[in-house]
Specification:
Chain lengths: 273, 292
């Protein structure tokens, strides 16, 4: 079976700097894949390349065997590859509901959905479909329903991450790209968000997330990849990586400190559950 | 100053204030979509007025000339965006601002060659017989100007608040990258913003021509006052643009009454300087003017 998403020899960068040096990566339908790597290793650039924001300088990206990198940012969203960017990037002055409605922008005026074989219940597009999807998101996050008329900027950090997730779901993704979803959030809230992500995955949504917080990311994932300076240097099942002394020594204990949640020495097991 | 005089100055202030408000809105729409100050905004108002004069003199009925002028300016604005601004997108805001300065000179020169140097009139939309209100006389054209301005502002509000496309435009003003990641075409939003900005500037130009005539060189002052109004209301804030425009118009009107009509145009400059020095984010808190 061919992968849902595959990157082959992808090279990309900014100006004279090349950040991704021939990157290969495959994500199977139904999988959760976490890419871990320190700040600056090129994780965000990778997701921006998949979303079409950063153009490729070499290689190609395919969705179910069809070229994705020639489709353009809007076309990529319409094909169901949806990104929650680093730092959430909400529309702060707009209301919660307006943010959600905009999340469904790519589905407006479209009947039916891209041919997705992932078996999730579909609610159609157009205004009626949008209303139904809005209800689904509100059912998933009742807190957003209570705050629907509030400006997004007035939400707490956790609520903002829920809104970012809800906004992405409005686009009916088949592949959700998440850039550091745990960043800046308290551990309890991260746990809530990741529980929802796991549920969504069980309903058929494929997830590709990049994280500095390796422990959290690998706990969620089926498969983990380690990225260093624009290359994938290690790839294995998530529990193998979690148990690997190399990964532990390099990546654990950083996540906490980096996110300003107080350092937590590796090996105490505080965050693993 | 008697009450009748006061009322008279307020009426006249409301009229020019509406025009400043529309011009300020024109600035705001382009600024919000692109972060650009369009130095050709006043020339679009001028072009609107003169195009209507040209079409009217060619024998078209006034309403048709009005709509024709909106179309012409809309097309000019869209062409300008596509041919001059778009290729410069990757060169940064300064290059684009310089392009707008170039466009303002080009439009002024073209208008002079086509329409000459004379100040050209247009008949009032519904006659010149003044309406008496509390002893002050109200020019019917004022009702047209104020009424149409209200309608335009209301229509824009509905568009930006109620339609998904309008919300996408507001989203682009806040965070273009995130909007693109939702599938919004940023280049279409920019194009739409230029088109709407051009059309409402043209409307302002057509409506003011029966009151104060139009020449090829009227754009500079109109643009400056529209910019002062936008800065006063808080650059990037559409409600602020309207309130700033009306406030500027009324202050001018009262200034003429209290001081002298010789200082009318100076008031806008003084307000602009005061805003820039004292409160660059404007009364209603848009983005600070000095940021860009
Ligand atoms: N817009 C940009 N322009 C220039 N360089 C960039 C840009 N974004 C990221 N970079 C550079 O690319 C490299 C990888 O960055 P990024 O993909 O953001 O890494 P990560 O998400 O893993 O922290 C870094 O060296 C960073 O400085
Ligand atoms: Mg990053």
């Amino acid at each position: 079976m061919s992968a849902l998403l595959s990157l082959k020899g992808v090279r990309a960068g900014y100006g004279s700097i090349e950040v991704l040096h021939g990157l290969d990566l495959g994500v199977q339908a139904g999988e959760i894949v976490s890419i871990i790597g320190v700040n600056g290793s090129g994780k965000s650039t990778l997701l921006q390349a998949v979303s079409g924001v950063v153009p490729l300088r070499g290689g190609c990206i395919e969705l179910e065997g069809e070229r994705l990198d020639t489709t353009g940012v809007e076309g990529i969203v319409r094909r169901g590859v949806v990104q929650i960017p680093e730092g959430r990037q909400l529309f702060g002055p707009l209301t919660v509901e307006e943010n959600l409605e905009l999340g469904g922008y790519s589905r407006r005026g479209r009947r039916g959905r891209h041919a997705g074989g992932d078996g999730r219940a579909r609610v159609g597009s157009g205004p009626a479909g949008a209303a139904a999807r809005l209800d689904q998101v509100y059912a998933l996050f009742p807190r957003l329903a209570e705050r629907r008329r509030q400006a997004a900027a007035t939400l707490s950090g956790g609520e903002q991450q829920m809104l970012a997730l809800g906004r992405a779901l409005m686009a009916e993704p088949r592949l959700l790209l998440l850039d550091e979803p745990s960043m800046g959030l308290a551990p309890l809230i991260v746990r809530d968000i990741f529980r929802v992500l796991r549920e969504l995955n069980q309903q058929g949504l494929t997830l590709l997330l990049v994280e500095q917080d390796a422990r959290t990311a690998l706990n969620l994932a089926h498969r983990g990849l380690v990225m260093e300076r624009g290359r994938i240097v290690l790839e294995d099942r998530a529990e193998v990586l979690l148990a690997s002394p190399d990964v532990q020594s390099i990546y654990f204990g950083q996540g906490g400190g980096r996110h300003g949640r107080g350092t937590r020495p590796a090996g105490q097991g505080g965050g693993s559950a | 100053m008697t009450f009748e005089q006061l009322l008279q100055y307020i009426f006249s202030g409301l009229t020019s204030g509406s025009i400043y408000a529309l011009t300020a809105l024109g600035f705001t729409l382009i600024y919000n979509a692109t972060g650009l100050i369009n130095f050709a905004q006043g020339e679009l108002v001028m072009l609107g007025g003169l195009s209507a004069v040209g079409l009217y003199q060619a024998g078209l009925p006034l309403p048709v000339a009005f709509l024709g002028s909106l179309t012409i300016v809309l097309i000019v604005t869209v062409l300008f965006q596509q041919l001059a601004i778009r290729p410069l997108l990757s060169r940064g805001v300064l290059a684009q601002v310089i392009a707008t300065v170039g466009a303002s000179l080009a439009l002024r020169t073209a208008a002079m060659m086509i329409f000459g140097r004379e100040a050209l009139p247009l008949p009032a939309f519904s006659g010149d017989t003044p309406i008496r209100i509390f002893g002050a006389s109200l020019n019917p054209q004022t009702l047209w100007v104020v009424g149409s301005t209200l309608l335009i502002v209301l229509a824009l509000q509905l568009f930006y608040r109620r339609t998904l496309t309008g919300k996408a435009v507001r989203a682009c003003a806040v965070n273009p990258l995130a909007a693109r990641l939702m599938g919004v075409s940023y280049s279409n939003v920019v194009l739409l913003s230029f088109a709407v900005s051009g059309a409402i500037s043209a409307a302002a130009g057509v409506m003011i021509t029966p009151i104060s005539f139009m020449t090829y060189s009227s754009g500079a002052l109109l643009g400056l006052k529209g910019f002062a109004a936008a800065a006063l209301g808080g650059l990037g804030n559409p409600v602020g643009a309207v309130v700033g425009g009306v406030a500027l118009g009324i202050l001018e009107g009262l200034g003429v009454g209290l001081v002298s009509s010789g200082y009318k145009d100076a008031i806008a400059f003084v307000i602009l300087l005061l805003v820039l020095f004292l409160r660059p984010q404007g009364i209603f808190g848009g983005k600070a003017v000095e940021q860009e």
